[in-house]
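Each record in this resource describes a single protein on a pair of labelled lines. An example record follows, reproduced without changes.
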Amino acid sequence: MAIRHQLIQRAPTALWTVLDDPSRFADWVVGTSDSAPREGRWPELGSSLTYTVRIGPRKTEGFTVVRRYEPPRYLELEAHAGQQSARIAFDIRPWGDGTLVLVDEHPLRGLGGTLHNSLLDALIQIRHRKMLSNLARAVEEGVTGPRAVNAGLIGDAPRPPEEASHE
């Protein structure tokens, strides 16, 4: 099982502000860029986003559909890229002054679903570590905009000098 958790030092409402914004998807989801609404009103049940998925030098189009939307506690997504799809479930819990986020992902279709094993789960764990770190930074720092990662405000990219000097 590929389950990972992250304690975010903000209330669940701050987390939902990020999750509710379709333009912020690429800020925290590893390997995506150029997110945009596809169908419905994100993240309501059945709504979807489209985005570009980058795997090394390759790019493909992907989309994610909301399969369960029960704020403030649950958000479940089905992500599609090529012939692959996966279920990503967020369990969001108030935790003192913060929020505990648990993410559970399982491949559904394609090669990942067929060959699902502990090695694939280990790779998903690595991806989740980065994704949850990005999500925590987006929420805790209040960083806005769909390309905050490239600006060095989220993730491992270096921060611009003017941002780093204010810490």
Notes: The first helix runs from residue 12 to 19. Confidence is low (pLDDT under 50) at residues 145-167. The beta strands are 2-8, 32-39, 48-55, 58-70, 74-81, 84-95, 98-109. The chain is about 25% helix and 40% strand.
